[in-house]
Amino acid sequence: MIKNRLPSLLRHFPEGIPVASTRSYFVHQNDRKSGYRKKKDENIIKNVRDGLKQLKHEVKAWKEEVKERITHDPFEFINPGHVEPLWLFEEDDCLPSWKVSTDTDWGLGFSSASLERSNLGYAAFTGNLDTTVPKDGKTSRAGYCSMQSAEPRKSFQREDYYDWSLYTHLIMRVRGDGRTYRVNLASVGYFDVTWHDQWNYLLFTRGGPYWQIAKIPFSKFLLTAKGRIQDHQGPVPLDRISSLAIVCADKVSGPFRLEIDYIALQYDPSHTEKFAYEMYKVPDFTD
Questions:
Q1: Residue 78, strand partner residues
Q2: What share of the chain is helix, strand, coil (3-state, %, to 5)?
Q3: What pLDDT is recorded for position 34?
Q4: Which sequence ranges form a coiled-coil region, renumbered to this chain (predicted)?
Q5: Of 127, 245, 225, whose CA–CA distance to 177 is shortest?
Q6: DSSP 212-266
Q7: E-only strand ranges, 21-155
Q8: What is the DSSP letter of 170?
Q9: pLDDT, tens digit, for every residue of 33-78?
Q10: Long-range contact set of residues 270-278: C-beta below 8 Å, sequence gap at least 24
């Protein structure tokens, strides 16, 4: 089956990532914003030492990739109704693969959020959404909290993607507070003009003590860029998914809480729809 329950990077570092998001002279990490950030003084000896520590883990990950490639069945078939777990939040090693960000982190607002384990052992995405706009003369709107999965990596920090092309639905078991959340699927391309492209779907939650299972067809996702719905739409590139995010940004100030049991994929052969939205070609010139 598809080995995408957790990013391979975290799977091989049970004690934590030794050199997370830092440059190493032995393991190359591509910086998409190279030249944008200010360069810091680097300790070459420390980088070499950290790189040597990381090297044995990367070789182990590379061996697992070779083994998986040899044993992989090229004629893979999924039974109708099959559900493939992606993130099981009851597992201890699942939460570290997610990162939380808010508008406060970027100096664009005053919201706060955290992702912790609830008393029952599930993931609890909680915080306070604040739509107060900073008086900086630049920001026009505020109120944003997000939890995003880590981007998958191959051995030696090579970029990788989730391949969900064999599935038709995204399955989520959640317990919400009545707010509307947004599910984002990112597919980072090669050029910077596509780095903000995301496919969105609104997740309506019910308040109260009851859990709900959301079965979301991939054909219902809308293409957006920096939160704006694009004129030219298209289906989700399911073979090149770089991350999944759950966002609270419903323009209502106040506390929020979303518990998550699991996120999974499902193949439903009765769902033959490729893309739900009709597209109209507008003439370039009108009389």
A1: none
A2: 15, 30, 55
A3: 58
A4: 38-65
A5: 127
A6: EEEEEEGGG-EEEETTEEPSS-----TT-B-EEEEEE-SS--EEEEEEEEEEEEE
A7: 83-88, 98-102, 112-117, 123-129, 145-149
A8: E
A9: 655 555 565 677 877 777 777 788 888 888 888 888 787 766 677 8
A10: 271/168, 271/169, 271/217, 271/219, 273/217, 273/219, 274/219, 274/235, 275/219, 275/233, 275/234, 275/235, 276/217, 276/219, 276/220, 277/222, 277/233
List, as one string, the DSSP characters of 118-136: -TTSSEEEEEEE--PPPSS
Taking 70 as the pLDDT cut, the residues of the chain under it are 1-42, 73-75, 189-193, 280, 282, 285-287
d(CA 244, CA 238): 12
Q: How far apart are CA 207 and CA 32, in angstroms?
A: 40
Query: What are the φ/ψ torsions at residue 123 (nearest 5 degrees)?
Result: -80, 135
Q: What torsion, rounded to 10 degrees, do the Cα atoms 248, 252, 254, 257 define?
A: -30
DSSP category for residue 107: T
Closest CA to 200 of 256, 250, 162: 250
Q: Which residues pair with 262 in a beta bridge?
A: 88, 173
Q: How far is Cα of residue 100 from the mean position of the Cα atoms in its chain?
A: 11
Write the pLDDT tens digit of every residue in 111-123: 999 999 999 889 9
One-letter identity of residue 174 = V
